[in-house]
Amino acid sequence: MAKLEEKLTEMLEPGVEALGFELVGIEFVRAGKHSILRVFIDHENGITVDDCADVSHQVSAILDVEDPISTEYNLEVSSPGMDRPLFKEKHYIESVGEVVQVRLSMPMDDRRNFKGKVLACENGMVSIEVDGQQFQLAVANIEKGNVVPTFD
Fold first, then answer.
1. Phi and psi of 129, rounded to 5°?
2. Where on the tree of life does the source sit, at the highest rank?
3. Where are the beta strands (DSSP E) in 55-148?
4. Order of strands, edge to edge, in the sheet holding 99-108?
5. Are 102 and 144 in contact (CB under 8 A)?
6. Distance between CA atoms of residues 88 and 94, nearest Å
């Protein structure tokens, strides 16, 4: 996770949790005047549009006071969705048995992209099976990770 996302997570997590939601993670996509701050939230009973609106108001208020982003951006608050982003070790633990797509910050075995089944996750390492071969990936080296939805 980049420094800005880490700072934003620390800043926003208490406010999101105060509303009864889990802050799954944050993405800041820089795109000139059209930068986007994505805030992913979850709840054991699911997420509604009203939940997203409530969290958006809370997050906006915090960001207005703290002003951590110097450029213009649009704020998006949503549930993680079927292709759930994976930000923390906890998310990989919850994804054991599922297929995930990950991109590493630093290449391993001359590759950065892995798509496979999560076998285990412990002590900061994710074990992923890709085409019958196992890889041990450090969570700290994962730049981006998502669950790959399967339709049976």
1. -100, 120
2. Bacteria
3. 73-78, 99-108, 111-122, 125-130, 133-138, 142-147
4. 133-138, 125-130, 111-122, 99-108, 142-147
5. yes
6. 10
Using one digit for the tens of pLDDT, what is the confidence trace for 20-42? 999 999 999 988 778 999 999 99
Q: Tokens representing 83?
A: 């292709």
Asked if 56 and 47 touch (Cβ cutoff 8 Å), the reply is no
CA distance 46 to 41: 9
Q: What are phi and psi of 26, to 5 degrees?
A: -135, 140
Residue 150, both tokens: 């399967």
> Which secondary-structure segment (H or E) carries 42?
strand 35-42
Query: pTM of the full predicted structure?
Result: 0.85
What's the pLDDT tens digit per position in 65-99? 988 888 889 999 999 999 999 999 999 999 999 99
Residues 6+ positions from 146 with CB-CB distance below 8 Å: 83, 84, 85, 86, 100, 101, 102
Residue ranges of domains in the chain, CATH in brackets:
3-78 (3.30.300.70), 89-147 (2.30.30.180)
